[in-house]
Design goal:
Elements lengths: L6 H32 L4 E5 L7 E4 L2 E6 L2 E4 L6 H12 L2 E6 L2 E2 L2 H7 L3
Antiparallel strand pairs: 1-4, 1-5, 2-3, 3-4, 5-6
Helix pairs in contact: 2-3
Length: 114
């Protein structure tokens, strides 16, 4: 005795499997951007002098500034290089944080070109 389903039965099983796979994949990947958005900016910096522009690209990342505070999402370079790019664009940086870790005084001086 051979067990086989009619053609319509096989097609309905295939479509159900595809729909299930699509739903589980989208549910698994949908929460990742939401968690990243809620965690806040990757870089934050305090400028010595308020910024003239609200938005700028410096150090390979897009910065949003208000007065002396600037924030940006993650870039592809090392934090010191991102900081240097920001310093070239806006001037002296008084503090720089990457992923919650603040640059020490020595690295901050290097960022500012000292």
């Amino acid at each position: 005795m051979t067990f086989s389903l009619p053609r319509t039965g096989r097609l309905s099983i295939l479509f159900a499997a595809l729909a299930y796979t699509g739903l589980t994949f989208s549910a698994a990947t949908a929460s990742a951007p939401l968690a990243a958005a809620q965690s806040g900016p990757y870089y934050s910096a305090t400028l010595a002098v308020p910024a003239d522009d609200n938005r700028a690209v410096a150090g390979g990342v897009a910065w949003a500034c208000k007065d002396t505070k600037c924030v940006a999402n993650k870039g592809t370079s090392r934090p010191i290089n991102i900081c240097r790019g920001l310093a070239r664009e806006f001037g002296e940086i008084t503090s720089f944080t990457a992923r919650g870790k603040e640059l020490d005084e020595k690295k901050l001086a290097k960022c500012n070109g000292n």
